[in-house]
Amino acid sequence: LKHRWWAFRAGCAWPAPPQEMEDFLAGVEASAVAGWLSSAGSCNFRASSRAALTAVAAHVERLSKETLADMVGNAAALLHYRQLLGVEDPMSLLLVRRRLQCVDEATKFAQWRTETAVARLMNGVDQDGPDLFAALRRAFLASQVADFKDAPDVVLWMHVLGCLEEQDPVQSKLLAGEAWRALAHTVNEHNVLWPLQTAHFVEAMPHLAGWLTVEGGPTLEELTAWLDGLRKRMEESPSLGRYGPAHDPCLVRARHVARLVSQLRA
Fold first, then answer.
1. In angstroms, rounded to a whole number, what is the distance separating the alpha carbons of residues 127 and 32?
2. Which H/E stretch holds residue 55?
3. In this structure, what DSSP letter does residue 207 have?
4. Model's pTM, two decimal places?
5. What is the pLDDT of residues 56-89, one digit of tens each?
6. Which of 159, 230, 154 is nearest to 196 (CA)?
7. Are 83 and 186 in contact (CB under 8 A)?
8. What angle do CA 39, 42, 44 make, to 5 degrees?
9. DSSP tag of 173
10. In angstroms, rounded to a whole number, what is the distance separating the alpha carbons of residues 243 and 193?
């Protein structure tokens, strides 16, 4: 006030106060200020102006990555979300993941009225889980959203769901092979568990290599190494091979994988 009084006496213009709070914050210390805000507060600040959006971009990206890592705790599921939904940015991925959760909440009652055994197994697992039925759940929920229902990977994963629901055992093996040959280019050491669990479910374990070692898919050497690594992890943690809800799980055992690895090396 003292400075303003002398400015008035001298006939000088008073310094203009900041017009908006974001004008005050969106300076060189904006990212430091945002670091003390809650997640919601950071997002609100980010949306206040273009200057604020730029100033806290790095902080919000880091916060989004941390939140996503807390919510989706395994690399396979995180990669699956990106492949299914075609989204790389962590914040955008959190938003579309929330859309799938809204679909889940809106259809909860109808899910438990379904007549198929596979659908009941799929509906009984966590959306962010690491197993085959969790992956199917993500794909099914994405298929219920207009923006994603025609996405290439969503369509391909619905074929995997179809092969598990097929009642004829011979036909289910054929459909599983078709589905995974089309998805072979997406298989890596983190998610090789999913085609393995599919083969286990339709009782076609010896056919797994034929499904995946196609153009664009892994080589036989890569597939063998991934399966052998999976076998070792299963020996340390047998629950890794479990898929389906906790009250009614299916289980791929380490000895099943060891037998398959031996066949591939023969």
1. 35
2. helix 50-55
3. G
4. 0.79
5. 666 677 777 888 888 888 889 999 999 999 988 8
6. 230
7. yes
8. 110
9. H
10. 10
